[in-house]
Every structure is written in C-alpha cells, then in structure tokens.
Design goal:
heterodimer, A: mainly alpha, MetI-like fold, 2 domains, 14 helices, B: mainly alpha, two-stranded antiparallel ribbon, 13 helices, 2 strands, about 5% strand
Chain lengths: ~300, ~300
C-alpha cells in the first residue's frame, strides 16, 4: 500500500475524523440493534431513547428450555432467552447450517474442478464457458421460481433440503468458480509441471499438487460461498413450507410477525443470525477483501 | 511449455469431424471438458432450462389441471395491472437512487482511503461487515429502527418533523428508507472495489501529471477517473442488476407492504396460485429487462474502453 505523509497535523486530523465517521456510520445499525436486544422493554419505549444501555435484564436458560444449552444453566439476556427457547428459530438455524454446509461442499467440489480447467487447460470453448458461468451472477433469481416450483412439485422436491440446495448451488457456483479461477491463475505452474514430468496425469496433478497448495484459497472461497448460502432467502422462501426445512432467513421475518411488538426479541434474533458471520468476516477480513476485489482489477 | 497450450493442428470448418476428434482425442483436452462438465450441467439444467420453460409457460394460462394457450395474453393482463406499474416505479426509483448514491459515496470513500494509514486493516474489516449481513436481517434491523415508538430514526424523523405519521405507514418514506438501508449495506463494498481499482494505477502517472503542473482536481478528472472507468462501470453494473432484482430487503423492511418487481412476481407465483401465469410473465419481464440493462452497460463499457 502506498504511503504518503500527511502534509499537516490538520490534514491528518481531518483524515482520521473522516475515517472514524465512516466507521461509525457503518457500525451504527449493528450496535444500535445490539443495544435494543439487551435493554428492558421500558427502556426500549423510552422517549427520547437512551444512548447507552441502562437496564440489562437476565433470565436463566435451563436444561430442557433450549436444546443449545441443554444441561448447562447460563444467565442470558431476557430477549435472547425468548429466541433461544423458540423451537422454530432453533430449527431454522439448524436447517441453515445443513443447507449452507451442503451447498458449500458441492460448490467447492464441482467449482474447483471447473476453475482448474478454466484457469489451466486450453480447450475449445474455455472463455465462453467462463463468461456463461459468470453471467449467472446477473441472472434475476425470481425469473425461474415459477418453473422451479412446478418442476419440483412434480419431482417431490418441494419442502425438502435438496429443493433449496439445488438452486442455491446454481447461484453460489459462479462466485466459487470465479474466486478459484483467480486463485489458481496466481499459483505458480512449476510444481504441477514437475509432477507431470514425473508421469502424473492432469487429475493427479490437480488432486495431489494444486489442491493441497491451494488450501488457503479454497478455505476463503468456501467461506464466501457459505456466507452466500447462509444469506439466501428467495428460493428458500418459495420452495419450503414449514419449519422442518425452512432456514433461519425465512424464519426470521415470520418471527417478526409472530412477536409483532416484541421488538427486543426481534433485535435479539437479528443479532444471533448475524453474529457468526460478523466474527467470520472480521477473522478472515484480509483474505475476503483480497478475494472479493480480485476480479474488479483485472 | 506445457502440453496444454499446444493446439490441435487443424480446426478448419471443412473438417469439423477431425477438429472434434482433435479436441476429444487429446486426453488433456478431454480432461478439461470432463472437469467443466458438472458446472455446465448445473448451469444449463437449473438456469437455462427453467428460463426457457418460464418463457414457454408465460404463453399459457395455467390453472390446476387446465392449461390453455393464450399467446401474449398473460403479458396483456400484466401490462394492464396498475400494481405492476407501482412495482416497476418502486424498483426504478430504488435502483436509480441507491446506485447513484452508492457510486458517489463509494468513490468518495475510496479516494479518502487511498493512502497508507494506521488502522487501515480495521477500516477494511469494518467496511465488509454490512456486506456479510443477510439482506433479510438487515431489513429487519432497519425496520426496527424505523418503527414508531421504539425506532431511533422514527424518533429523529419525528423530532425534526420530517414525516407525517409513522415512517412505515408512508409509502414514500418507506421507499426512501429502503434506499438508505441499501446504501448503508453496499456502499462499503463499492468503495472496496473502487479502492482496489485505484491501487493498481501506477504512481508515476500521477508523478508525470504533477510535473506537467496538473492540480489535484485535474489529477482526479484527467488521471484517476479515466483509468478507473472500467472498475466504476463494473461496480455500477453489479449494483444496478442487484438493485433491479431487489426482493429480500423490500420483503423484510416493509413486511411485504411495498412491492418491487421481484416481490410482485413472487406474490403472483407463490401466494396466489391462480395467477401463476401472470406472475410468470412478470418473471420473464424481469429477466428481459435485466438482460437489456446488462447489454446497455456492456455496450457503454466496450465503446468507452476503445476510446481510452
């Protein structure tokens, strides 16, 4: 990163004030909703609103009330307790993990092979294939919900995990392929060439040399694919009916309808669904930013 | 160099068979095809197939057990529905408003951040936090902040006398609210894309401009902007198409009370099954209009790139 000195202390102050302001605006909704999730309902309805939380009430989560904390007795802010003992919300979280996990696994297996071929091998139709896959990024998902609905009805895939995973894979796959193509292109070819000299075929070079060398890139890609699948809403909302398969993104707006005026519980549910992603992103930020911006530059 | 870069010697139109044999006879190339095959199958089976089917379905009136060919009848119904125009209007206002603001703010932030400084990693990490949010959740969170009695923005708007009555009951206010939520969520991402674009502009270009006596403003308009144009266009294309298909945000933020084209389509397809066909015509409309937007962007991108 280029580093030029600030021309004056005033310049430096102005710069940092801008940066802090930007950071504040960016984080404000998260912090504010976190505050809403912690305070008592009396404080929630206070006018003017309090700036910092003043009344945090706890309730004990006990064995039997929440499957997540079975056997352990932990104090828990009261709104979070409301969410944690809601069986539909907990089921939604579990469904999200299953759907996003399987989607990511499929995308990584299918996408890494395609990305390797597109990055390394020369064959007829190589470039158009990449363009076709990337074009999916621009594809409006809503355009295919009616055909998928009719089709999945016939195939018995409505209200099943696979019914949601299949379209999720389609829309996550371009991201997977694109990130991995960028990653494989950066990887030096020498070791693969050496393996081929020793008589390895392409599959062996790919599985025994490229994949092990690309673990950091594959982890980042998997993470971004997982976040994408975690956040998916349209297909899940169209193709699932009940809590046996509905992921948390579908449950949470319903949750808002069920607990219409329990704003604290809605805030807590939002925080619970967001916290894992925020932590992942903060932990892997350098790699994620590099991955996401890789293509815009080239 | 590598075996893979050697091309089959002949691929004349006169001998298609030999060229096909050349492609598949070469084991490296065959491996290439096998490796992309699963991806291609997924794309064709789940995207191309259904969109073709959607276009076909849009020509039929579909009731359970009763399919009637109606030609463009569904489109006629669609284009005579006032609610369709409301959805179209909302989507257009949302797209133009959010993309314009995201472009302007994103560029400004990228310009400010385009230097080495202490805390850069932290700033970048903060910038991707909103991006990682599920859009539905961001909709719920902003809804909470716009809600009467408990929402901070409801309180501020009320104190300043900006809105008559609750924000969430006022269509215009909600639309503006949706734009604000979207700008909050995606501006940092646009800024990161543009920043990445700025950082590959070589420093000597600026040096040369400075030697020639260019002011800061001239450096920006004559050096940064032209060299950044591809990155700007890519970011705007992404954002425009994403905003045009807005669904999650409208759904959660307005509790389905405000229609976008996608929400309108969904309601017809999924909620009112009797209107599946009209919903499907709306879906085809969203698809074709997205295609048109992409084509316009790519045309502009292409010609501008040639000029530069």
């Amino acid at each position: 990163m280029r580093s030029k000195p600030f021309t004056s202390p005033l310049h430096a102050t102005g710069f940092y004030v801008t940066v802090v302001f930007f950071a504040f605006v960016t984080l404000f909704p998260l912090l504010w909703v976190l505050k809403m999730s912690l305070i008592s309902s009396t404080e929630l309805f206070a006018s003017p609103p309090t700036i910092l939380p003043e009344s945090i009430t706890f309730k004990s989560l006990t064995a039997g009330t929440c499957p997540l904390f079975a056997g352990i007795e932990v104090p828990c802010p009261v709104n979070f307790e409301t969410v944690f003992i809601d069986p539909i919300f907990i089921a939604g979280l579990a469904n999200t993990l299953v759907i996003a996990g399987i989607t990511t696994a499929i995308c990584l297996v299918v996408g890494s092979m395609a990305a390797y071929a597109l990055a390394r091998l020369t064959f007829y139709g190589n470039k158009p294939t990449l363009s076709l896959v990337l074009a999916i990024t621009f594809f409006p998902a809503v355009a295919i919900i009616a055909p998928l609905f009719l089709l999945f009805q016939k195939l018995g895939l409505i209200n099943t995990y696979w019914g949601i995973i299949i379209p999720d894979v389609l829309f996550a796959l371009p991201l997977t392929v694109y990130l991995l193509v960028a990653y494989f292109r950066e990887l030096p070819e020498d070791l693969e060439e050496a393996a081929k000299m020793d008589g390895a075929n392409i599959w062996q070079a790919f599985f025994k040399v490229t994949v092990p060398l690309s673990i950091p890139g594959i982890v980042t890609t998997g993470l971004l694919t997982f976040i994408y699948a975690w956040n998916e809403f349209l297909f899940a909302n169209t193709l699932s009916f009940d809590e046996t398969v509905q992921p948390a993104t579908v449950v949470i707006p319903q949750f808002a309808s069920t607990y219409t005026t329990d704003y604290g519980a809605q805030a807590a549910a939002s925080i619970i669904l967001t916290a894992p992603l925020v932590l992942l992103v903060l932990f892997f930020q350098r790699k994620i930013v590099a991955g996401l911006t890789a293509g815009a530059v080239k | 160099m590598s075996v893979a870069t050697e091309r089959a010697p002949s691929r004349g139109i006169a001998t298609p068979w030999r060229s096909i044999k050349g492609e598949f006879g070469d084991s490296d190339k065959r491996t290439g095809y096998i490796m992309v095959l699963p991806t291609l199958v997924i794309v064709l089976l789940i995207a191309a197939g259904p969109i073709a089917y959607a276009i076909y379905l849009s020509l039929w009136r579909i009731l359970p057990g009763d399919w009637t060919f109606v030609g463009l009848g569904n489109y006629a119904t669609l284009f005579s529905d006032p609610e369709f125009y409301t959805a179209l209007f909302n989507t257009a206002v949302f797209t133009i408003g959010s993309v314009a603001l995201e472009g302007a703010f994103g560029l400004t932030i990228a310009l400010v951040l385009n230097r080495g400084f202490v805390g850069q990693g932290a700033a970048r990490a903060i910038a991707i936090v909103p991006w990682a949010f599920p859009t539905v959740v961001s909709g719920i969170m902003w809804r909470l902040m716009y809600t009467d009695q408990v929402g901070i923005f409801a309180y501020i708007a009320d104190s300043l006398g900006l809105v008559d009555g609750p924000i969430l009951a006022n269509t215009t206010a909600v639309l503006i609210g949706a734009i604000i939520s979207d700008v909050w969520k995606t501006t940092p991402f646009v800024a990161l894309l543009l920043l990445a674009g700025m950082q590959v502009i070589p420093l000597d270009v600026y040096e040369a401009a400075r030697v020639d006596g260019a002011t800061k403003w001239q450096q920006f308009t004559r050096v940064t902007l032209p060299l950044l144009r591809p990155a700007i266009m890519v970011a705007l294309l992404f954002r425009t198409l994403d905003a045009w298909r807005v669904y999650d945000l409208f759904w959660a933020l307005t509790d389905r009370s405000l229609d976008s084209l996608s929400v309108y389509t969904f309601k017809f397809v999924r909620i009112s099954q009797l209107n599946l066909s009209v919903g499907n015509a709306a879906a085809v409309f969203v698809f074709l209009s997205s295609l048109l937007i992409a084509a316009v962007f790519i045309k502009v991108l292409g010609t501008r790139a040639q000029e530069a």
